[in-house]
Amino acid sequence: MLTYAARRLVLSIPTLLFISFVIFMLLQLAPGDPMAQVPLTVPPEVKEKMRQALGLGEPPLVQYWKWLVQMFWTEPKVFIDWLTRDSFLFGWLPDTSLYNGELRVLSWQTRSPVMDIVLQRIPQTLWVVGMSYIVGVLIALPIGIYSAYRQYSVFDQAGTFVTMVGFSIPPFFTGPLLIVIFSVYLGWFPSIYDTTHVVSDWESFKYQLSQMIMPVMVLALQTTAQLSRYMRASMLDNLNQDYVRTARAKGLSEAVVVMVHVLRNSMIPVITVIALGVPAIFGGAIITENVFKVNGIGQLLITALFANDLPMVMTLTFIFAFLIVMFNLIADILYGLLDPRIRYD
To answer: Contact, 276 vs 325, CB < 8 A?
Structure first.
């Protein structure tokens, strides 16, 4: 397993490089002058520094090489220095001074390092997206298991209806609908997510929960709809297998047969869907964050696209590609842990 994981990690490097090159070349085809979005109040020396950092006026391959150096050489040095000086690990690790003022990947819109902005936005996205995914998985798995065990029952029919609704209605419709119902008419929850809110006591904690409920509901609905159907189909496939009849003939209780033997084999294909759904839910959060004004990386990507901020778009799309490749690897490893018949020799 370790050999397989190491081999996959090595193979992921050229894969990510190829993906980043394709993204970069596609963004190069975007029309317009990249510096046209820079305000006129920006001093000429700052514009020149930005042009040098971006490699403007140079061949695309030179620009791509500069981005690679800045992203994979300069930014890691900045991160290591932050870990040893300003993070919670301060005092545990020896102080380093690896970063010596080299040019970093700069945002055309804010003229700030892209990774600094991304790291500021990630906690908000993780709060909403991470919580919604956990809630969606915790709801979907029991629904799928019970729907399969009670096939064609009233519960199964109701679950089928809810999942079809979740599949059919996109977030840009569900979000405004919840805002109209729960914010405008009922006044239960705030319509805008306040990213500056600080939790310091019980009242502020309750407000944090209230403003998270609607965006979490929107994203969790899609997760629940997808995973519950996969879970139901996988359970139905295993409930009719010979080993289930054998387990029942040996006198095992129905709970042990379903929740131990059937569930473990049924989780094998579902694990892949859960792992691969993590990058997908980040993609869905792009729309949801804009609907509820969550100041996360989804809203950051939309803002960068409208502002033609290509370094920001390039970095964020590469992060999404990295998540997809890594969670593919995680899904394959979990396959082997759940099913001892699978060997990666």
So the answer is: no
The three-state secondary structure class of 241 is coil
- Tens digit of pLDDT for each residue in 67-119? 888 888 887 777 777 777 665 555 565 666 777 767 777 777 777 788 888 88
Please count the other Cβ atoms lying within 10 Å of the Cβ belonging to residue 302. 15
Q: Report the SS3 class of residue 35.
A: helix
Q: Which helix (H) or strand (E) holds 119?
A: helix 114-125
How many alpha carbons fall within 13 Å on the CB side of residue 60? Answer: 11
Q: Which tokens in the block code for residue 286?
A: 């792009």
3-class DSSP assignment, residue 305: helix
C-alpha pair distances (Å), 264 with each of 211, 251, 253, 297: 36, 19, 16, 35
Task: Give Cα separations from 39 to 84, 113, 219 (angstroms).
Answer: 36, 17, 36
Distance CA 83, CA 223 (A): 34
Token duo for residue 201: 């006591």
Residues of the chain with CATH 1.10.3720.10: 116-338
Task: Tell me the backbone φ, ψ of residue 101, rounded to 5 degrees.
Answer: 85, 20
What phi-psi label fits residue 193: left (phi over 0), alpha (psi between -120 and 50 degrees) or beta? Answer: beta
Q: For residue 163, give every residue at least 6 positions away whose Cβ sits within 8 Å of its Cβ, in sequence order, or none.
A: 224, 225, 226, 228, 229
Q: How large is the average pLDDT for residues 151-177?
A: 80
Tokens for 61, please give them.
Answer: 């391959």
The whole-angstrom separation of Cα 209 and Cα 45 is 46
110, with CB counted inside 10 A (0-12, 13-18, 19+), is: middle
Q: Does domain 116-338 have CATH number 3.50.50.60?
A: no
The whole model's pTM is what?
Answer: 0.74
CA distance 328 to 91: 36
Mean pLDDT of the chain: 77
What was the pLDDT predicted at 33?
A: 60
Contacts of 154 (CB under 8 A, 6+ apart): none
Q: What are the pLDDT digits (tens) for 288-305?
A: 777 777 777 777 788 787
